[in-house]
Amino acid sequence: xxxxxxxxxxxxxxxxxxxxxxxxxxxxxxxxxxxxxxxxxxxxxxxxxxxxxxxxxxxxxxxxxxxxxxxxxxxxxxxxxxxxxxxxxxxxxxxxxxxxxxxxxxxxxxxxxxxxxxxxxxxxxxxxxxxxxxxxxxxxxxxxxxxxxxxxxxxxxxxxxxxxxxxxxxxxxxxxxxxxxxxxxxxxxxxxxxxxxxxxxxxxxxxxxxx
Length: 211
Prior knowledge:
211 residues, alpha/beta, Rossmann fold, 5-stranded mixed beta sheet, 11 helices, 5 strands, 11% strand, elongated, disordered N terminus
């Protein structure tokens, strides 16, 4: 274990030689798991309910090379912070502090590549999908979206699900954040009201509080 006195945290170092490569009970009792990216990718397989619950209550920081990052994101590995292998170990303390505050920092070159890929995803959308994305950003319900695109609600539900899958996003709020990042405007026919969630305001608030 590593002790970070400044943060008062107990850290299990999964990079040390000879560890058994498993999420042991001892490891899950630590405040932080410091894991090599290769180990974290192996752990991306389905975890037990107890392991999943334990991981949500502690920080997981990955030591990663730049080429590891796409796989970490694509496989939705359970991590909250990243220390690049090119960075000195003294950066671990700062990385933990940032992760505890709910932020994730990435190298500028990685962010540029990430934004480029996001833009490519947007450009692959059909006109109907873009219209639905604008409606989602505006906070439209399935019924409201069905009125905009003149299709039934069942079709809209299927279309929204397909849109989220195509963009690699988990829910409508994530889609709204994505739309804001790409400069997409909310659909003008939908305004926040009794039925319509003010998703643009929610997305902006979330975007302002996350890196």
